[in-house]
């Protein structure tokens, strides 16, 4: 699945999951929230001994970043399948009104675990008897590396594995949401595996891909938020899905979404002398002052200096006219 799905995220951070609760209210679209509250945010596994546990450190941001640990014991019986669920209403109800089309989540599978094939599961409408699950799983390798994964929420990407009813009815009243290990073909109940799976920064996404500031358009403001994400290695901005947020993701946004060149500060689709006029007129070159993309921060370090020209000229678009060789962002293995 492409890492280019990023827009207005919906609240929460955590683990593999079910959300239970019938509701006529719409699910909420908000920025993702980590586990800084010191709680598991309501995520459970159904049996107390198998419930996910809060880890105080070691999340995507490293030391001091809490995350939720999901344990799969393998074999048979309760606790054998890596999975968890949440009954909070933020995750249930109407997905149509807020335009929810993707679930984004950061996951890390420890080296002593089995490799996992994770799927999204939606239950409803209004009960747990009907369930839909991802047609394609995403592979979470057992290498201890945090990566961002995205699960599309549309009729082509989900298949009904239990009960009856239409996908349209499901999206109007989701009763529960889940992430779990389910290898092979999509199944009703998932697959057992021995695993220690970390989960963080779960978010519903809606709207235009790459619209980080949520104003329903792609603009320099999105690149300025991305620059902040690059500084923090925030995986919400990891467009190429390689577990790092850096200049490669900035280039992907400009190339594949803006369909332009690095250095196109005035967003006219070209990189030429008019962009030089725009950035030098602001007067921040080599001053050490914080700069935006429109002010010359082309490489995402929030400054305007010679390194920005290196990034722009490496992209090769100066005086080349509109970009036509648009490539696609590579998709995480699934």
Task: Describe this structure as you would to a colleague.
It is a single chain. This protein has helices at 167-172, 220-232, 247-257, 273-280, 306-315; strands at 43-44, 53-55, 67-73, 83-86, 100-109, 116-123, 131-134, 138-140, 147-152, 158-162, 176-181, 194-206. It has 334 residues and is an alpha+beta fold. It folds into two domains: 43-206, Jelly Rolls (Sandwich); 220-315, no CATH class. The longest helix is centred in the C-terminal third of the chain and has 13 residues, at 220-232. The model is unreliable at 1-24 and 326-334 (pLDDT under 50).
Count, helices: 5
How many runs of DSSP E, i.e. beta strands?
Answer: 12
CATH topology of the largest domain: Jelly Rolls
β-strand percent reads: 15-25%
CATH architecture of the largest domain: Sandwich
**Could you give a short account of the major beta sheet?**
7 strands, antiparallel
Please identify which CATH superfamily of the largest domain we are dealing with. Galactose-binding domain-like
Helix vs. strand class: alpha+beta
Mean pLDDT across all residues, rounded?
Answer: 87
CA radius of gyration is 21 Å
State the separation between the terminal residues, measured CA to CA: 8 Å
CATH class of the largest domain: Mainly Beta
Low-confidence stretches: 1-24, 326-334
Give the fraction of residues assigned to helices: 10-25%
Order of helices and strands, N to C?
Answer: EEEEEEEEEEHEEHHHH
Short description:
The protein has 334 residues and is of the alpha+beta class. Helices cover 14% and strands 21% of the residues.
